[in-house]
Amino acid sequence: MKSALCSRFFILLPWILIVIIMLDVDPRRPAPQLTSRPYFSPHTVGCGGSRVPLRRSSLGRDAAEKRNESRPPLQPEPRLPTIYAITPTYSRPVQKAELTRLANTFRQVAQLHWILVEDRATRSELVSSFLERAGLPNTHLHVPTPRRYKRPWLPRATEQRNAGLAWLRQRHQHQSAQPGVLFFADDDNTYSLELFQEMRTTRKVSVWPVGLVGGRRYERPLVKNGKVVGWYTGWREDRPFAIDMAGFAVSLQVILSNPKAVFKRRGSQPGMQESDFLKQITTVEELEPKASNCTKVLVWHTRTEKVNLANEPKYHLDTVNIEV
Ligand code: UGA
Ligand code: MN
Question: Where are the membrane-spanning stretches (predicted)?
Fold first, then answer.
């Protein structure tokens, strides 16, 4: 009798264990990744992918997760506005290093679409293969700056930013625009992750301080009662919008409802491109101050030192051709 009971117990034991394991599995929890992939194909990540939106604090997320344990979510979360970052870029020894820093930042931002515009007649192999491995939803454009405009005293990247604007308008021409925000992300600046949280809520045109620009530690819009009333700057205070390209964002709706707003070559001077563009789409009174009423620096106008390659011609070339 005792041995019959014992053998039944051992027959049932594996089944009991299986049932216990099945009950313990949380179907809401995604399966762990089998391989660690520091770089993903953009096609597997898609728009937004599984990255955590930066708008929530980890505290808020914990609370949300705890809530989910007791009852299922009632409705899906509203879609985050897409951030479109237009980056003009040109071939030089530090290009891949700059793009690597930028991609490392952007990869941590949810729902970001990178519009990379090369200053070239064709797409380069370097940028094409870089983007393939960058793990970011992206659009790769190219347009060369005409030779006559390649002068140190003339504005840079006019044609490239316009190509990015044209792509955005073309893409949204037949559909009512999804919520979106555009900003111009030069390839050599330094962007904090908080900046993306701030710009995501742009209704029309938002502004914030920029560090290390205009010959000063920072420039910033001066804010009174929640409105921009002037500019703290070290250079050309007479500019209608005394702000660097890194200091503002524009809603997609504003870009689409002002189809003629572009960067202009004719009559434009360095440092005036921002004002020339913003004048076409907004007024100073309308600007939305971000970063605690423009009292925090969340982006820096860093510039990379020109690299010293003086020893390159003195030595034999390597036997392999390595991309840098
Ligand atoms: C400042 C502003 O921050 C820029 O936004 C503005 O375009 C520029 O002045 C101007 O004078 O037009 P700065 O640091 O002097 O920036 O300019 P760069 O960083 O050298 O160039 C701005 C962007 O244009 C970068 O993303 C760069 O890769 C790109 N660029 C520059 C080109 O695509 N082609 C070029 O020949 C030079
Ligand atoms: Mn720069």
Answer: 5-23
What does the pLDDT read at residue 266? 83
Q: Ligand 1, atom 14: nearest CA belongs to which residue? A: 303
* CB 198 near ligand 1, within 6 Å: no
Beta bridge partners of 222: 230
Nearest CA to ligand 1 atom 21: 156
Q: For residue 290, give Cα distances in angstroms to 75, 158, 202, 297.
A: 30, 26, 9, 10
Distance CA(102)–CA(188), nearest Å, equals 8
Q: What is the 3-state secondary structure (H, E, C) of 10-27?
A: HHHHHHHHHHHHHHHCCC
Q: Are 202 and 250 in contact (CB under 8 A)?
A: yes
Ligand 2 ion: Cβ-proximal residues, 5 Å cutoff: 186, 188
| Cα 90 to middle of ligand 1, angstroms | 9
**Beta bridge partner(s), residue 87:** 116
**Number of the ligand closest to the Cα of 184:** 1
Per-residue model confidence (pLDDT) at position 267:
77
The question of whether 286 is a catalytic residue gets the answer: no
> 286: helix, coil or strand?
helix
Separation of 323 CA from ligand 2 center, angstroms? 23
pTM of the model as a whole: 0.80
Residue 296: burial class (beta carbons within 10 Å; 0-12, 13-18, 19+): middle
Catalytic residue among 118, 159, 219, 274: 274
Q: What are phi and psi of 88, to 5 degrees?
A: -75, 145
Positions in the chain short of pLDDT 50? 25-69
How far apart are the CA of 187 and the centre of ligand 1, in A? 8
Sheet containing 82-89: order of strands: 138-142, 112-118, 82-89, 180-184, 248-251, 205-207, 288-289
d(CA 273, CA 267): 10
Question: Among all chains, which residue has been given the structure tokens 């076409």?
Answer: 280
